[in-house]
From TrEMBL:
Catalytic function, reaction form: K(+)(in) = K(+)(out)
Name of the featured protein: G protein-activated inward rectifier potassium channel 1
Transmembrane helix as UniProt keyword: yes
Gene name of the record: Kcnj3_1
Residues that span the membrane, as ranges: 45-66, 120-143
Family: Belongs to the inward rectifier-type potassium channel (TC 1.A.2.1) family. KCNJ3 subfamily.
Residues in Inward rectifier potassium channel C-terminal domain copies: 155-320
C-alpha cells in the first residue's frame, strides 16, 4: 500500500489551498456574505458575538453621550426637569435603555421624551442599523445551519472500486448508497480521472482531468437512489483505462474522483457528495456482495455487506490486449 497525497479525500474534502493571492484577496470582501458563510463555525460565532457586542457598546455610548451633553446625568432626580431619556442616570442605565429598545422589550421605566429631537433621530438610526445587522448576521447563521453538507454524510460510497467482467465486458465499478429514507431527487453521478501526463509537445500536466463515462449517453448516470447501486464504467477503446491490465495497475498512479449531486427532498437544496479512489483502492478481479434481500412485503438492505467484495475469474489482460 503506497501512501501518497490525494487530490480529494475519502470524505470529499479537496486538498487544495490557495496562496499568494496578493491584491486578489480583496475579492473576498466584495462578497462578504458568502465569505462569512464559508468560514468555520468557531469564526462565525466569534464574529457574531463581537459584532453584537461592539454595536451594543457603541450605541449605548451614543445614548450616554446625549444624556451627558444635555446635562441629564447631573439632574437625575429633578422632577421639574425634562431629560432626553427618562431615568437614564449613567452608562449602565443607558445600556439597559438601548437593550430594551433594540429587543423591543419596553419595560416602561425608561423612555424618550418629546423634547429631545436628537434622541428621536438616534432612535431611528438605531432601528435601521439594528434591522440591517440582524438581517445580515441572522441570515448568515441560518444559511450556514441549513447547508446540505451534513446530508452528504448519509450518502455512502464503497471503500474500494473493483474491475471485473459484466455482460462480457471489462468494467470498473463502485457502489453508492443512501442511508436515509428521504430520497435524493434528480440524483446524478459523474467521475473524473486525475492523472499526470505529458503532451506530444512536451508539456507536463500534473493533475490532468479526464471524464469517465458512467452512462452519460444511455442515461445510466441519472440515479434512482432508493437502494444501493453499483455504478459501472465500461472499459473500451474510448476509456482512459483501455491499456490497463492487472500487472500495469501495480505501477500506475491515478485518482478517480466521484461526484454525486442531487436535490434534498426535504429541503429542496442541492447537495453534493464526493469521494475518490486511488490505484491502491482498485481491486482487480473482484465483485461486490449482494446487499438486497426480499422479506415479507418489503426489501431489506444489509449495509454490513456494503463494502464487501469477493474474487471472481477475470482475465488479467487489458482490453487492448
Amino acid at each position: 500500500h503506497r501512501e501518497r497525497q490525494r487530490f480529494v479525500d475519502k470524505n470529499g474534502r479537496c486538498n487544495v489551498q490557495h496562496g499568494n493571492l496578493g491584491g486578489e484577496s480583496s475579492r473576498y470582501l466584495s462578497d462578504l456574505f458568502t465569505t462569512l458563510v464559508d468560514l468555520k463555525w468557531r469564526w462565525n460565532l466569534l464574529i457574531f458575538l463581537l459584532t453584537y457586542t461592539v454595536a451594543w457598546l457603541v450605541m449605548a455610548s451614543m445614548w450616554w453621550g446625549i444624556a451627558y451633553l444635555r446635562g441629564d446625568l447631573h439632574r437625575p432626580h429633578d422632577d421639574a426637569y425634562s431629560p432626553c431619556v427618562a431615568n437614564v442616570y449613567n452608562f449602565p442605565s443607558a445600556f439597559l435603555f438601548f437593550i430594551e429598545t433594540e429587543a423591543t422589550i419596553g419595560y416602561g421605566h425608561r423612555y424618550i421624551t418629546e423634547r429631545c429631537p436628537e434622541g428621536i433621530v438616534l432612535f431611528l438610526f438605531q432601528s435601521l442599523l439594528g434591522s440591517i445587522v440582524d438581517a445580515f448576521l441572522i441570515g448568515c447563521m441560518f444559511i450556514k445551519m441549513s447547508q446540505p453538507k451534513k446530508r452528504a454524510e448519509t450518502l455512502m460510497f464503497s471503500r474500494a472500486a473493483v474491475i471485473s467482467q459484466r455482460d462480457g465486458k471489462l468494467c470498473l465499478m463502485f457502489r453508492v448508497g443512501n442511508l436515509r429514507n428521504s430520497h435524493m431527487v434528480s440524483a446524478q453521478i459523474r467521475c473524473k480521472l486525475i492523472k499526470s501526463r505529458q503532451t506530444p509537445e512536451g508539456e507536463f500536466l500534473p493533475l490532468d482531468q479526464c471524464e469517465l463515462d458512467v452512462g452519460f449517453g444511455t442515461g445510466a448516470d441519472q440515479l434512482f437512489l432508493v437502494s444501493p447501486l453499483t455504478i459501472c464504467h465500461e472499459i473500451n477503446s474510448k476509456s482512459p483505462f483501455f491499456c490497463l491490465s492487472q500487472r500495469s495497475l501495480r505501477s500506475e498512479q491515478f485518482e478517480i474522483v466521484v461526484i454525486l449531486e442531487g436535490i434534498v427532498e426535504t429541503t429542496g437544496m442541492t447537495c453534493q457528495a464526493r469521494t475518490s479512489y486511488t490505484e491502491d483502492e482498485v481491486l482487480w478481479g473482484h465483485r461486490f456482495l449482494p446487499v438486497m434481500s426480499l422479506e415479507d412485503g418489503f426489501f431489506r438492505v444489509d449495509y454490513s455487506q456494503f463494502h464487501a467484495t469477493f474474487e471472481v475469474p477475470t482475465p488479467p489482460y487489458s482490453v487492448k490486449e
